[in-house]
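Supplementary material to the annual report.
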Amino acid sequence: MTTTPTVSLPAPIFAKVTPRPFLLRGLANPPSPDLPPARTNGRGPRETRPISVNASSLSHAHGSALVRVGDTTVLCGVRGELLPVESIPQFRPLDKNAALTEKEGGGGNNDVIGRGELKDYDLLVPNIELATGSAPQFLPGVPPTALAQTLSTRVYSLLHSTGLVEAGDLRVWYKPGGGHKTGEDVDMGEGEGGGEGEGEEDRVVAYWVLYIDLQFASFDGNPFDVAWAAVVAALRDTRLPVARWDPDRETVVCSRTESRKLNVRGLPVACSAAVFVKKESSEKGARTKQGDYWLLLDPDRLEETLCREVITMVVDSSDGETRIKSIEKHGGTIIGRELIRGYAGVAAKRSIEVKKAVEAMES
Amino acid sequence: MTATTAPEAALGVLPRADGSAKYSHAGYTVTASVSGPIEAQRRDEHAYEAHVDVVVRPAAGVGGTRERHLESILQSTLAQIILIKNFPRSLIQIVLQVEDSPENDYVNTKLVQASLNFAIMPALIQTAVLALLSAGVPMRATLTATAVAMAHRDGAKKTIVDPTPRDIETAQSVHVFAFTSRDELLLAESEGDFTVEEWDDVCETAKKVCCHSAPAKEGMAMVLDDEDVGGPDMRQFLRSTMKSKVDADLHWK
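Predicted assembly:
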């Protein structure tokens, strides 16, 4: 009795040898007609991985967060450093109106000025490190890869365009006319400070520079979404010590006990998807039909290597209405206007998930 | 420099490159050279398709993270229109040198800026496409691109085509779109604060600028040209630039 030998490959080998058919198989013809199309990681095309957020994991940073989405893990640490205004080239003191509006709780005009400060003096410094070993493609001892550089540009750009951090929180004031708070560090009596400060105006003496460092502990696709969630969670967790100018020592002193939370505006959430097409586009430019492509939400590493077209939408639905903060779509023509419009709903749904995870961690 | 100046282009400006183009519009001047298909380095070699390599050099200083990001966007965009499957194991290299960019008088100009520069993207894309055409690299379609800013002025929403740096700074949102010659949306980058409806409006404006004269009604386009689209007709521009170059090259016949 002989049976015809059947060649069967274990899944990892199948994935390695022919990744495209491997992914296509589950999507195009599910094993049984009752089953919905599934990706190789067991998710449906529009299914994301659950997100988990853990804040304050680092003891020496002013704020930190560990965000995990599936097998992509990012650790973000925020550390503030004081930048005295004397060390800023081309420093322009704030005009009085701006200072005034800040006291009153901020206004539209102040917003624009504040953004200028953040950008001109580089008060937000994100850096992304894709650790060796987090994925096989990252080799040791090489300069930052194009991916790392691209990611940090995107984070930097989005930090500024969303106005996540207010410049007012980063200013350190000298207020000769009072408003001194006695912290533990103060060894002089409060009365002495007033002597030379008489008649002086309130002025900004230093800024906090926030170094936002991101480390990928493990990398399994969708780096930007996870990195951005980590940045937002870490900034929300950040507490900067209360700092003030000591006119006698002519230096900025920080309080040991008092600290202040950063005001983080909104909760923008990034949501990425990749387009997997059945067949690579032909020369003739035949349009890919409906059903010949899949929008894979939250793609993993294997899927990212097989998809050319990607979309990332950043939405903020923290105050009811969904506002789009950024759209990045390139690498293909399948996602058109209709799809982008529809994608806003998908992104809004994801943003609620992420918001829940971030807020659960904080409570 | 006003933003409404008509685009200008010259093809074949570099004698030793396979193809080159110089393009200036909205204050930006970019020169591009295209070499290819040439032999790829071992690590870039792909068994089934050509590797598209894009290098962006800023007007001053050396490229930083921002240029890397622009390169990655351009690379994925241009790889879509070049018939890369026709040239396995080879390399198509596109070098874009920014020569001139508009000054912003309102802020301290820093040499190295890390944030995204939306206004330069259309100029880079357009120059790259012209240089590819000049090099005779087989392409699936051509591309036209534009930048649109959306601003709140005097309580009303206003869309600005080809915004100046000052416009971008004060704008509510900034968008870049690129359409293929089949009117497909190939690239859409937006930043700021907007809703889906606003995005759709801006997309419509951009589409008018990029895809104004459909190939089928070329004769009609001349007549309808006075329709107010708030920007230059990019596709017509691409066509007339190529036409004048071809006419000049075939003059001896």
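Chain A touches chain B through 42 residues (CB under 8 Å).
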